[in-house]
Amino acid sequence: MKKNVIVGQSGGPTAVINSSLYGVVCEALNREDSCGTVYGMINGIEGLLKGTVMDMEPLERSGELELIRTTPGAYLGSCRYRLPDDLEDEVYPRIFERFEEYHIGFFFYIGGNDSMDTVSKLSAYADKIDSEIRFIGIPKTIDNDLVLTDHTPGFGSAAKYVASTVREIALDASVYDSKKSVTIVEIMGRHAGWLTAASALARKFEGDNPVLIYLPETAFDPDKFIESVRSSLESVSNLVVCISEGIHDAEGTFICELEKNVETDTFGHKMLTGSGKYLENLVKEKLGVKVRSVELNVSQRCSSAMLSGTDLKEAAAAGAYGVKCALEGASTKMVAFTRLPDAPYRIDYELKDVHLICNQEKTVPLEWITKDGSDVSQDFIDYALPLIQGSVKVPEENGLPKFAYRKNC
Amino acid sequence: MKKNVIVGQSGGPTAVINSSLYGVVCEALNREDSCGTVYGMINGIEGLLKGTVMDMEPLERSGELELIRTTPGAYLGSCRYRLPDDLEDEVYPRIFERFEEYHIGFFFYIGGNDSMDTVSKLSAYADKIDSEIRFIGIPKTIDNDLVLTDHTPGFGSAAKYVASTVREIALDASVYDSKKSVTIVEIMGRHAGWLTAASALARKFEGDNPVLIYLPETAFDPDKFIESVRSSLESVSNLVVCISEGIHDAEGTFICELEKNVETDTFGHKMLTGSGKYLENLVKEKLGVKVRSVELNVSQRCSSAMLSGTDLKEAAAAGAYGVKCALEGASTKMVAFTRLPDAPYRIDYELKDVHLICNQEKTVPLEWITKDGSDVSQDFIDYALPLIQGSVKVPEENGLPKFAYRKNC
């Protein structure tokens, strides 16, 4: 009897995590010789434990699956559930009972680091009990911080969103006359600066904004920062500075934690302003120029307005490739991208050992960051530019993007 | 001898203010029988005073003008210069000397309330000195708060941006399981709630997010707000609330000013958190649920990703119509839109007395706001929906939107 397939999504959403879901489901439905029912876990492994799964096939018949492909967020819902390190924990047999119940032969989990940890642990437990279920991770994260892969689905679209939005903010900042102004843009990424680095793509010509870019890979020195802002303002009246939310000083203290005077609000909560807000006040104090800070916020991971065609396509292909490999016998792997050395840009899809990926973090190479820590090199541009190519026309209805959603949520 | 044309932009930028510039310049260049040189003021009336103007014709020849049409921000640069009320002030003769110098016969100013004040005062001064220069205002503001016109160019695209972004944020908020959460989205608009109201367009079905919407047109009661959030969470697990930045209590105190404990930061600056941040803390304190606030920020006015085709077209047509009317002898007017009563949506372009427009403010009619002040009515939806129709393909280069910019800035 044919084994069934189950797929889930986990961790923070991205603009293309549903494209990977589309890839997995389409490929599995197309391989009806080898695959039985294709199930989706609602809210990842948590949903599986509760027995909330759905049959994905009707979505293909209704055309909804095609709409899912360009819908941001996680169609199946997500979770942030971390499996216990101890494989003797009672949760493992409970999960595998569910697998038994649904007659699962193939398990696909779309996510980042923590999700690969789930794939790794389930694989290890399967080994332990001699289960034949195959476990494959499909990468996903706007942070681009997974090791053993050239890049991750989700990064290209987020990078395109960041670069185009910073380009627009720079235009917005430039409309007033010669009075000096500083705009600080705070970009997602606590430990890895890939997304902040992508702001460099916003430049229309050499010396264009954003003139200064700070990643969390190097220590941030507020005094040097002020000096850089001061000297940059000599040549650029309306300066745009991009910072990662995770910039920190040489001691490792996040810049957003340097604010000492403000302790608690009316309700007793610590008023943690972001790093951008802190630096806004610092610039105001030290240089006395007009300054504002802008936090790009969740749109970085959920905007469908700036989908990268390359990213969307690769996300779906990663899902399909995972299914293909699982059917050929692979397990305990994550789908990875290897960039071919010659131009034009092309990638090979490969499998990497998921045990080696989970709980690792790939940061921007230090040689791609300029010595003073205030910019990225051409190497980064060459790396990132192919990933934002191609635009996607999201279906529209009544003047707005049309999205798929589960009717009961 | 033919008189020359001068055009300027003023106030905050929008996504389509350059489309109006395109409209004015194209029409004026096409009417070479009546118009001489077409000048642009760099940074509005301030630039005119300094003598920084540019010849616009080369932009048409180079194709740059077509690119300007879909570029957000203000291509010519903007200013926030308010002319003195006293027409005896020495600035008036200085401005009219410039007009003389450039042999100006037609003056077009693209902007909002304050810009119409400039048009009004220059018109009044022209009357006073019997000048034959014709002054026409071209409306522009994302706030949609100009009187005597159905709506303003800039609003449709901003509304489309707000609605689609809120729709995406609602998807993002819904990915985690049944744990209750609240997302508060803060939207531009100090006194007029048009843009915040546009978030209602984000709903995909009845009862969908954003469930609660608060405009500055009515008094905001924090206690009632908490009660509404509490009861909404009974039916919607992941609640999205949209608020205008300008919501205020019955005494007129802005909600963002209610925070009392936090006085100053390390540098002695008052730490004014936004209204969203204040309400985030209030919800955390009173209801103990997961809560975050998101400020949509400047992308509302400068994103080219969500241009409304209708808005872009009307913005250009408003500029062209202004030129046509000025050539026919009109002055002291603003171009206005009148919506024809029958479906489908159509507008007539008209002229209204600019003296009656400046320094007025059109807010959302109270009958379009629900009694408890937490939603807008179908009347608003019917009003706004036609304004966000049609999508625009912005030219792309190297994976990013290609924008026009003055090479010296």
Question: Could you characterize the architecture of this molecule?
Answer:
2 copies of one chain form a homodimer. In chain A, the strands form 3 sheets. In chain A, strands 3-2-1-4-5-10-11 form a 7-stranded mixed beta sheet, sandwiched between helices. Chain A has a 4-stranded parallel beta sheet with strand order 7-8-6-9, sandwiched between helices. Helices cover 35% and strands 18% of the residues of chain A. With 409 residues, chain A is an alpha/beta fold. The longest helix of chain A is centred in the middle third of the chain and has 19 residues, at 155-173. In chain A, helix 1 (17-30) packs parallel to helix 12 and helix 9 packs across helix 10 (275-287). Chain A has 14 helices and 13 strands.
Write the layout of secondary structure elements.
The structure is a homodimer of 409-residue chains.
Chain A: E1 3-9, H1 17-30, E2 35-41, H2 44-50, E3 53-55, H3 57-62, H4 64-69, H5 91-101, E4 104-111, H6 113-128, E5 134-139, H7 155-173, E6 181-187, H8 194-197, E7 212-214, H9 222-235, E8 238-244, H10 275-287, E9 290-295, H11 299-302, H12 309-327, E10 333-339, E11 347-353, H13 354-357, H14 378-384, E12 396-397, E13 400-401
Parallel strand pairs in A: 1-2, 1-4, 4-5, 5-10, 6-8, 6-9, 7-8
Antiparallel strand pairs in A: 2-3, 10-11, 12-13
Helix pairs in contact in A: 1-12, 9-10
How many beta-strand runs of chain A? 13
Instruction: Count interface residues per chain for the largest interface.
Output: A-B, 71 and 71 residues
Helix and strand content put the structural class of chain A at alpha/beta
Q: What's the rounded overall pLDDT mean of chain A? A: 94
Strand order of the largest sheet of chain A: 3-2-1-4-5-10-11
Helical content band of chain A: 25-40%
Biggest sheet character of chain A: 7 strands, mixed
Principal-axes shape call of chain A: elongated
Total helices of chain A: the number is 14
Beta fraction of the residues of chain A?
Answer: 15-25%
Provide the succession of SSEs of chain A: EHEHEHHHEHEHEHEHEHEHHEEHHEE
Which residues of chain A form runs of ≥5 with pLDDT under 50? none
Q: Alpha-carbon distance between the termini of chain A?
A: 34 Å
Radius of gyration of chain A, in Å, reads 23 Å
Quaternary structure = homodimer
